Amino acid sequence: MFMTASMNAALRQLAEAASLVASATAALAQPDLPAGHAAYFAMLTEHLGQQLTRAQIHAAEAARRTGAHKLDQESLQTISDAGPKPTAQDVDATVGRTTSGRTHFRHTADLLHGWLGIPLSTARDRLVQADCLIAGVNDAGQLTAPWLPELAKQFTDANTDPRLVVAASKKIHAVRNDLGQDHVREAAKTKLQADAVHFIKNEPETARKHLSDLVAEVKSGTREMEALLAEIGFFKVGTRNGLVEYLLRVLPAQAAVIEAFRQQLNNPKTIAGNRDALRELDSELTGEPASQWDDVSSMPDWARADATQSEEAGDGELLSSTAEEPDEQPAGQVNNEPTAEPAARTPRLEQMDAPWENLSPERRHLIGFMALLLIDRTGSGGSPGKQPGLATPQVSIIIDYEKMVERGKDFEVTSSGLALSVGETRAALCNAGVYPLVLNGKSLPLDLGRTQRLYSKAQGRAIRAAYRGCSYPGCSMPAERCELDHLDAWEKGGNTDLCSSDLGCPVHHIERHCGLFHAVKIPGCRPMVLLSQELDPEQRLRVNTFFLTPDEALEANALADSMTRLWRAGKLDVEIVDP
Fold first, then answer.
1. Alpha-carbon gap, residue 190 to 193, rounded angstroms
2. Are residues 167 and 312 in the same domain?
3. How do residues 1-22 score in pLDDT, each as one tens digit?
4. Which residue ranges run through the membrane (predicted)?
C-alpha cells in the first residue's frame, strides 16, 4: 500500500513538473530578461535535459517490463483522460488492466510510436539503450543484466551527463557484430566501455569525438561476415533538390559484378555499352533531350571529381567518386573549391564526336542500370535475348485530369507518392502499357463491376493505385503488401464493389476487424479512418497521407477536416463500419 502511494505521488510530481516547466519557460521568454537570468535559465534547462534523458529510457524500459502495450482500450482512455493536471483520484485510476486479447499495439515500440507519437526509430533506440544501461529481456521474458554494465553504473551517477553515456552505448551497440566471438567479444566490449568511461569522466567536451574514433578503429580492421551482412542493402534516402536519392551497400563480391558492368558501359563495343540504344533510352526515360555539361564550371560539385578524369583508357579504367569524410581532412582545412585539371583533360562539347559522349559518365551509368531494370524478362514477347524468370517492375502513374487542365503542372504522381514532371509522364505514356482508371474528385475509384467473392485483378489494380498504401494513419506499408478489405462483409451480404473497399496491411486489417479502430464510408469519397477515443480524443476523420505528395497531403487533410465538420454538424451521412 505504501509503495502504491509513493508511486502515485511520483506520477503527480511528474505531471506538476511538466506544468511548472511550461509556465517557467513562458515567463522567462520575455524580451526584458536580464543576461544573468538568461544564463541561469540555460544552465537549469541543461540540467533538466539530463534528467529527462534518464527518465525517457527508464520509462521505455518500464513500459516493456510491465507489458504496457497490452493495456485494454478502457485503461488507455483513463490514462489519456488524466491529462497533465491529474487529481489523486485520477492517478489512482491509471493503474490500468492488461488483456490477453487483441490490443492496439503489438509491442512496446509500437505503443511509444502509435500512442505517444514518438518516431519509431527513436522508440527502438530507447529500448536498445534500456537493454544496454538498465536491463535486458531474454526469450522467456525474464530480466537480464545490462549489456554494458560499466556504462550502466555511469548512467545512474548523478554527476555524469547521461546523454554522453547514452551516445556511447549506442555507438558500442552499433559495432556489436564487429567485436568477434565469445571471450574475444567480451574483452573488446570491456575495453571499449573502459575507454568510453574515461573520456566521459575526464574529457566530456571531446568525448563524442573520441567515441566516434574508437568505433572507427573497430570497423577499420577485417570485419566479420555477420557485421557486413547486417549493413548491406538498397536504401531510399529521400528527395533532395528535386532528385530522389538511393544508397546501395554491397559486399565486395557483389561490387565486382557492378564494376564489371560499369566497365562494359564504358566500352561502346559491348551490348551494355551500345551508345545508340542507351541514348535512345535516356530520351525515353526523361522525355526531354539529354542535357550536357559544357565544362567543369557548369558541373555540380559532386560530379567534378570524376569529370576531370580521362576516359580514353577505354573499358579497362573505372571511374570512382570517392570523397574523404570530414573527420579525415586535416584540421582547419576547408576544401570547397574544386581543383580544375588542364583544359586538354576536359574537352568542350563541340570537341566531342559521339553524341553519347556528351553525357556525364555518371548519367551513362545510370541509364545502363535503368536498362537492366526495364528489360522484359517475362519472356512474353518472345524477342531474342530476353530472359524468362524475373518479373518486370510495374509502376502505376496517376494523372489528375482537373489539375492538368487547370494548372498544366503538378498533376501526375506515381502510386508510391513520387511526383513526376510533364516530360517524364509523357515519356512513360509513350512506352508503358496503359490501364485506364477513372477517379472522382475525392480519390474514389469508380466501380469496375462485381462478379465474384474476391476482388478481380482489375479492381485490385484500381484500389492499390488510388489508395497507395495501408489506410491506417501513419502506416508505411505500401499497397503491394496490403490486403484488400471488404468494408461490407461478404458473409453479411456485402458486395465486392470498389465503393466499399479499402486497403489494410496484415496488422491493421486484423485490428479493424477486432474493432480497435473504424473505417468510415462517405458517399462519393474514399473511406476514412476513425481512431478510438484514447488515441484521438478529438475524434476526427483521418486519411493516411504517408504515400501522398505534400500538396496531396494538404488537400487530403483539408478534405478530412471538411468531412469532420459536416459530420459533426449532422450535414453528412456517414457510415461507421462495424468490425
1. 5
2. no
3. 556 788 999 999 999 999 999 9
4. none
